[in-house]
Recover the amino acids of this structure.
């Protein structure tokens, strides 16, 4: 029966190499094999790391801009966001995962469901009167512009996707009623 301690010692000596800089054991054979078989692998890995860093910076910048817009809106409108609730919880207490789920494609505050609620509200208010529906469309657009101004002139991308989809739904109803749509978006 082989000596386990001897095998373990031989394995450690031949397979794992100690990295003096980090103090960690590294897989010397695997790194050497990658360098020998794929000369561009290290360069590709460095490119991926740079891309990741750039994406993290962009996401962080976008997130901070959104947070700043929300804070500016809250300050200018005197709205206490902690009073806005979803499932009996203030939205300010949602975890990042819960917030992402809420604004996901099929989430309650996602583009699909929110645009449908906006369009349905305008369509229900106007009934089958094309002129009233055009007025309601204009009101939805004006409300969005006012919200945009409250956020300092720019809102998160999801807001633009939502308003565009809501307007498309309203426009479809106008056309279905025999009306013509004139896009008044700037």
């Amino acid at each position: 029966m082989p000596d386990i301690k001897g095998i373990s010692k031989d394995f450690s000596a031949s397979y794992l190499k100690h990295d003096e800089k980090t103090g960690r054991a590294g897989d010397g054979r695997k790194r050497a094999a990658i360098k020998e078989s794929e000369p561009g692998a290290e360069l590709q890995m460095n490119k991926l790391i740079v891309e990741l860093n750039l994406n993290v910076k962009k996401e962080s910048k976008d997130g901070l801009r959104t947070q700043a817009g929300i804070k500016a809106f809250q300050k200018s409108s005197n709205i206490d966001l902690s009073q806005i609730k979803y499932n009996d919880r203030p939205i300010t207490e949602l975890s990042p995962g819960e917030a992402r789920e809420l604004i996901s494609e099929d989430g309650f505050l996602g583009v699909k469901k929110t645009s449908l609620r906006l369009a349905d509200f305008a369509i229900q208010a106007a009934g089958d009167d094309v002129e009233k529906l055009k007025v309601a469309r204009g009101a939805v657009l004006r409300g969005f512009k006012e919200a945009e101004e409250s956020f300092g002139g720019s809102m998160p991308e999801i807001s633009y996707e939502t308003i565009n989809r809501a307007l498309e739904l309203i426009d479809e109803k106008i056309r279905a009623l025999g009306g013509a749509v004139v896009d008044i978006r700037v």
